[in-house]
Amino acid sequence: MLRLVVKGHIESAGPVGSNWLKKKYNLGMSSATIRNDMNELESMGLLGHPFTSAGRIPTKLGYQAFVTELMEAAVISVDERELMQRELLSAMQDTQLLIRESSKLLSRLSHLLGVVLSPQMNNGVLQRLEIVHISAEMLMFVISVQGGFIRTILLQVSTELKRSQLDDLVALLNERLAGLTLDEIRRTCVPRFQDITGEETGLIQLIVDRSTDLFTEAPEARVIQLEGASYILSQPEFSESAQMRELIEFLDDGSSIVRLIERSSDLERVNFGHASIRIGVESEYHSSGKLSIVSAPFIRSNLQGMVGLIGPTRMNYARAVALVEGMATLMSVPGSPKHFA
User: Fold this and answer.
1) Phi, psi of 164 (to 5 degrees)
2) CA 275 to CA 100: how far, in whole Å?
3) Which residues, 6 or more positions from 287, have their beta carbon under 8 angstroms from its beta carbon?
4) Is the pLDDT of residue 53 over 70?
5) Domain limits for position 232
6) Chain mean position to CA 205
7) How far from the centroid of its chain's Cα atoms is residue 16's Cα?
8) What is the pLDDT of residues 68-91, one digit of tens each?
């Protein structure tokens, strides 16, 4: 009975009554029997009763029981699968473009908020380090890691460098650092350059002194891509002005969403290819518990990002899981969409 009430509420967006269930699913039992079953589920905390004479709606506990014990797996259609492969194939070699396009596509297919969180670069393998003159006293360090991710940082220098000096130093830095993770570079920077820290430009010493700034990415630096705000704002749960204002404030706070997505993966200890579900999430701006998050990790090179959907607790969880897991799998196989199944 709980499965039918949840399915009915997802479809109708309103309380589900015994007569509606009887007609909708041809249950072969009386309305009184259905009401008794619903009363029992309510006494267990699985259903709620929003109005005295209304039907029932699932509680947070009821949704949790549904997704862990009763939910049937959904399957992405062949057409949708081919659409995902076709639209993301051209972006596979450009990770930033892939993040943008995947969030748009997820939103379009689900009519929910598509969310993609870029990987944290600390475990990324350095592919190339470039240094660009911005001014006589300012250098821009461009750190490229495997997987197509780039980080830039500006550092002030006290000595003006000649182009030839800079080229020689860049070649030396790449010779000693390329192929190491940013975390390894940060931890071992001092011994790797202890033989040449006295070089005349002072640049090597600057890099050693500022290694934490250069080779550590703060959590707040992660990029989050959101698409489909209009879909979630059109849901009946947010039709009242106060609810809509609270939701808009939540959507405007990217750092809050980053923390929620990261917390989802931490709490569930999710594995690649498997989605986690958080029902009735709360945040600084959104305390009503009317939002849920379905998310899964994707892997590019050895970097892990997150892809997900945010919607009302009334979302179609089975379809959301299928879309998120399918997208995470596709994003993790650069250039090889044939492996997506």
Assistant:
1) -65, -40
2) 20
3) 246
4) no
5) 78-119+222-339
6) 38
7) 32
8) 999 999 999 999 999 999 988 888
